């Protein structure tokens, strides 16, 4: 089995503003340690997939930075979308690229902006998913064991167990949109629902066949594009064809309609690093739950609890404050309560209205 | 009458930390506008005292920066104390320097780190004080009309009115230490008490005579020092004699013991700029009482009230926070509630204990 990793690095998230910007999205940031989330994603795949078979799908505006962050990748392995057309198109583009180079190869599709704490379990879980995808005419999705009644994720309802040996494999009974809190709690209590991770395994040709069946317009666009992939006219072909592709998620467009679907239960200490608030679980905390991204040596709290601060190399002096997020960049200072840091989008909307594009 | 301004720039206040440091005390900071408090002090004296007759008494560690900030002053006009010996010694040193150069001259003694909003009234009040000091054998102090029951200042109790025409002149009935709140309120209600401003007018020789009477040890040290003032051995003489001078304030050591004392009532919009909290009256506020030192153009609050921020040229983005002070410098981020920003001294004590001298 030839295994490829397809890293989805198309996001332009605003929830880590002001560290993340239109020109420097979350996946390119170093939020824990020195390496960016994208670099960490490639690093942790090393036992399974060498850089020559790692593919990154990203926006054109970010392709250059992706290349700089990943000098070990062949430049051709960075696929730059002229514009975002959602995940069905991105997965299809990558599958077409892989199928053309290596018919029969398996793709592992992974987001670029997540963190994983148990890397060896991560690798063995991916191996299992890849073997299933190689051996059967199925699409495989990874479902994360819920740790709390999250309302911010979609859920996968597991059906008949195909193999109970961990990581357990089941058929997929249904997909569910982001639930309200009561429903999420019921999912958690019931033990049958997993978080939809956005991680998949499939043979490239299997996905293309499913696209042909469920999204024929996308499939025909990709077929038109295929001869140019890896060729000198690739960029021109993308420019011409990509904007016309239907924009739909691979979940809605394919997985929810596909009957040959398995889910592998994943338990490898995952975080989607959804906002500054999430850093409370990822940065080193002092005894009063304060954290400085740059380390406790530069954290100096007095009568202060639960604050999360990113301030570069500065000393962080806190006096009598609680549960704040504060971020200092070269050109912005942000302060908000932890409970509201998911609302930074509101700030950005208003900055846009004011014409302050330089801060977006 | 030859008039000299003696600017007392010896402070090493910590209350504007982290902007103020041991090496960069408050009077050298630009807290409003581009000019430092010291520069503004010299600027506003221009109608009354030319730079050749402005004298600055400062600590040796700050003399170079004082010179850089005030290139219009003759270098000899910057008197560097080898160590702080409180205000009686500093006033005495300046008086000895002035008396040697210009017997009979009047000194206006002014702190370097205050702000004044009504500059023309400031000048006319100083003129009045200077004329009184020139014409009579008195020491003159300026008393500020209290605006609120301040517990952080000493008070001057006015006695017999010598001249009711504004700025009114009275005899001094008594000096009072910093009061408790009830006493401060009684002072405010009674209308007879003024804030002790630390601004004085006296003939240099008059002060020296009072020092001889009330602080003979200080007077004899100054007499020993006098021949060296303005001479090449000035620094060596200061080094030898200054550390042995008694350390006492001019208020305790002289004014409280002196019977020939007048107070001029001052109403010129004064602020001692005591801490970041004071900037709420000095920086431009938005409609929700938020202020950015660098101006409203770079202030972007959402659901936020009463915050005071100094963050250099950065955009200040506030989301759902109230009554905070935040200060960003090259090497420190400070966040505290406005109500506690007078406690930054606690932070500094702990930093000292931790051996983090670089932040003091």
Report on the architecture of this protein.
The structure is a homodimer of 360-residue chains. The first copy, chain A, has ten helices and 17 strands. With 360 residues, chain A is of the alpha/beta class. In chain A, 47% of the residues are buried. The mean pLDDT of chain A is 95. The A-B interface holds A 18, 300, 302, 307, 309, 311, 313-321, 324, 326, 328-337, 340-341, 343-344, 346-347, 350-351, 354, 356, 359 and B 18, 300, 302, 307, 309, 311, 313-321, 324, 326, 328-337, 340-341, 343-344, 346-347, 350-351, 354, 356, 359.
Query: What's the gyration radius of chain A in Å?
Result: 21 Å
Structural class of chain A: alpha/beta
The CATH architecture of the largest domain in chain A can be given as: Alpha-Beta Complex
CATH class assignment of the largest domain in chain A? Alpha Beta
Give the termini separation of chain A: 44 Å
> What is the overall shape of chain A?
globular
Q: What is the chains' assembly state?
A: homodimer
Number of strands of chain A: 17
Estimate the helix proportion of chain A, in percent. Answer: 25-40%
DSSP strand content of chain A: 25-35%
Report the total helices of chain A. 10
Within the largest sheet of chain A, what's the order of strands? 6-9-7-8-10
Largest protein interface? A-B, 38 and 38 residues
Residue stretches of chain A low in confidence (pLDDT < 50, at least 5 long) are none
Q: Characterize the largest beta sheet of chain A: strand count, sense, and whether it forms a barrel.
A: 5 strands, mixed, barrel
The H-level CATH homologous superfamily of the largest domain in chain A, spelled out, is Spore Coat Polysaccharide Biosynthesis Protein SpsA, Chain A
> How many domain units of chain A?
2
The H/E string of chain A reads EHEHEHEEHEEEHEHHHHEEEEEEEEH
**CATH topology label of the largest domain in chain A:** Spore Coat Polysaccharide Biosynthesis Protein SpsA, Chain A
């Amino acid at each position: 089995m030839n295994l490829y990793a397809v890293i989805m690095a198309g996001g332009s998230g605003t929830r880590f503003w002001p560290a993340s910007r239109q020109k420097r999205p979350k996946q390119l940031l170093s939020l824990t340690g020195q390496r960016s989330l994208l670099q960490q994603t490639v690093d942790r795949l090393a036992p399974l997939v060498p850089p020559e078979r790692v593919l990154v799908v990203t926006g054109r505006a970010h392709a250059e930075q992706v290349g700089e962050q990943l000098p070990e990748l062949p430049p051709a392995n960075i696929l730059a979308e002229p514009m975002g057309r959602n995940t069905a198109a991105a997965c299809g583009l990558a599958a077409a690229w892989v199928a053309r180079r290596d018919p029969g190869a398996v793709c592992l599709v992974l987001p670029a902006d997540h963190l994983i704490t148990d890397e060896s379990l991560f690798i063995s879980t991916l191996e299992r998913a890849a073997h299933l995808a190689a051996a059967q005419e199925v699409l495989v999705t990874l479902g994360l064991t819920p740790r709390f009644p999250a309302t911010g994720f979609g859920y996968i309802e597991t059906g008949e167990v195909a193999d109970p040996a961990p990581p357990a494999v089941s058929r997929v009974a249904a997909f569910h949109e982001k639930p309200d809190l009561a429903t999420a709690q019921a999912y958690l209590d019931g033990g049958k629902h997993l978080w939809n991770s956005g991680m998949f395994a499939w043979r490239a040709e299997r996905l293309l066949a499913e696209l042909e069946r469920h999204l024929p317009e996308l499939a025909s666009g990709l077929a038109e594009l295929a001869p140019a992939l890896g060729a000198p006219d690739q960029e021109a072909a993308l420019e011409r064809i990509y904007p016309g592709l239907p924009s739909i998620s691979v979940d809605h467009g394919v997985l929810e309609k596909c009957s040959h679907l398995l889910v592998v239960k994943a338990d490898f200490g995952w975080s989607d690093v959804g906002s500054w608030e999430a850093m409370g679980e990822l940065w080193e905390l002092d005894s009063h739950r304060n954290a400085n991204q740059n380390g406790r040596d530069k954290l100096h709290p007095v009568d202060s609890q639960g604050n999360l601060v990113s301030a570069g190399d500065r000393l962080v002096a806190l006096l009598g404050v609680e549960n704040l997020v504060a971020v200092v960049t070269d050109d912005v200072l942000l302060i908000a309560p932890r409970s509201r840091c998911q609302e930074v989008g509101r700030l950005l909307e208003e900055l846009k209205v004011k014409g302050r594009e330089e801060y977006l």
